[in-house]
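User: I've been trying to design a sequence by hand for this structure and keep getting stuck. Would you show me what you'd pick, starting by listing the structure so we're on the same page?

Assistant: Good idea, let's start from the same input. This is the structure you sent:
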């Protein structure tokens, strides 16, 4: 994770950003700190990446890279305002022992548009990440990529319209931790699974060291189970909706209200789900599925188009 010490809305690169709307940087820091502390209370390790002056969106660490089985695919931003972030995060990976680091040639906004299910990499496109980046990710990470087309500019990244509740564990080995369901990988840094490490702008999330909750523990998902996701169908093209129904017939279907409060920008470790405080309807449906919901206030961060997941890079080692 990366603390929002320089957080501001100085430009507009998505429909949620309005430079004319006042932003309370101190409140943003308090909200981010609560999110970080929530991960730690749940047993995860959070690594903090130092924020840099002049990069107000660096807090959204999910856009800094995609890590699967210790392989890192860095980012390349579409907006010039965020371009310099990529090098700062690349240095962090190298300085923290990651040796298999690939920087992309295609526009690739990392976990904003890449969601690992434990078996396939769901890859979004339409507003930020180039379609060609999907093949590049498959080659760099060595995992199959499934392309999904986003059609609503309010949900400009895949992680604003879909998140993994529990990862696919079929054929997967044990993991130490993994935020969001990194099946078969040991999570060393990142947020999200009972034992995953969060590389959210500077935080490392690590769970107690058992199986990753996001890989099938809790939430009704057992060893060898298929991934379970939540998503907002209207954010996707008709063809992509058919793909999602085929791959995830038991998915939790989100409503417009869930999506508008960034409820789909949640984080799950397979047992605990961290959601914005407004996502009460989604929380009820997840509770009915056996998940334990923790609420956080991200109202200030949402002014820049971000929520819990945007602030969290999940590292699966």
């Amino acid at each position: 994770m990366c603390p929002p010490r320089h957080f501001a809305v100085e430009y507009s690169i998505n429909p949620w950003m309005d430079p004319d709307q006042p932003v309370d940087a101190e409140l943003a820091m308090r909200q981010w700190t609560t999110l970080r502390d929530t991960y730690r209370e749940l047993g995860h390790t959070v690594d903090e990446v130092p924020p840099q002056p002049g990069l107000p969106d660096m807090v959204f660490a999910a856009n800094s890279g995609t890590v699967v089985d210790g392989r890192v695919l860095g980012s390349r931003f579409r907006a010039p305002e965020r371009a310099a972030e990529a090098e700062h995060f690349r240095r962090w990976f190298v300085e923290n022992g990651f040796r298999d680091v690939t920087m992309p040639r295609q526009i690739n906004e990392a976990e904003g548009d890449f969601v690992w299910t434990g078996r396939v990499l769901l890859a979004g496109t339409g507003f930020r990440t180039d379609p060609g980046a999907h093949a590049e990710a498959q080659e760099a990470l060595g995992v199959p990529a499934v392309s999904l087309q986003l059609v609503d500019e309010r949900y400009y990244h895949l992680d604003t319209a879909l998140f993994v509740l529990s990862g696919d564990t079929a054929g997967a080995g044990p993991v130490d931790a993994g935020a969001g369901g990194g099946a078969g990988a040991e999570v060393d840094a990142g947020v999200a699974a009972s034992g995953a490490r969060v590389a959210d702008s500077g935080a490392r999330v690590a769970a107690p060291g058992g199986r990753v909750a996001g890989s099938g523990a809790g939430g009704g998902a057992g060893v060898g189970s298929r991934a379970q996701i939540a998503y907002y169908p209207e954010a996707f093209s008709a063809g992509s909706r058919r793909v999602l129904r085929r791959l995830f017939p038991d998915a939790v279907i989100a409503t417009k209200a869930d999506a508008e409060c960034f409820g789909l920008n949640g984080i799950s470790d397979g047992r605990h789900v961290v959601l914005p405080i407004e996502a009460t309807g989604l929380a009820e449906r997840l509770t009915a599925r056996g998940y334990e919901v923790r609420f956080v206030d991200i109202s200030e961060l949402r002014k820049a188009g971000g929520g819990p997941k945007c602030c969290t890079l999940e590292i699966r080692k």
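That's my pick for every position. To get oriented when you compare it with your attempt: Residues 171-196, 198-218 have pLDDT under 50 and may be disordered. Residues 52 and 124 are 28 Å apart (CA to CA).
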